[in-house]
Amino acid sequence: MTDLTTFFGAQLNALTQDVRQLRVRLDGIIAEKEDAVAKSRNFSDDIEARLKALEDAENYRQQDEDVERALGRPKPPNLKEQALEALQNMDQFPNEHDYSIIRRALEQLPDD
Prior knowledge:
It contains 3 helices and no strands. It has helices at 2-72, 79-92, 96-107. It has a domain at 76-112.
């Protein structure tokens, strides 16, 4: 009976040792997983922050282009301004273009 007790005691000790080693390995795997999840969250947050920065930069660039475009291109004169200029030019060098501008301006006036 002592032989069986010794044998099973040794087997039990070996199994207990194996379980302890598996727990240590499992704890290590769990810690690695948690670390990977944390890094993934940090990476994801970093990507989101960079994408937001890129979107902001694109919006600012677009606003800058809009401002430059607005400042760079003078507003064309409206029909009234064109007609007044055409009247001034007609005194010196009357031409068909000036007559056309004045005619279009007069056509847009109300009839009353």
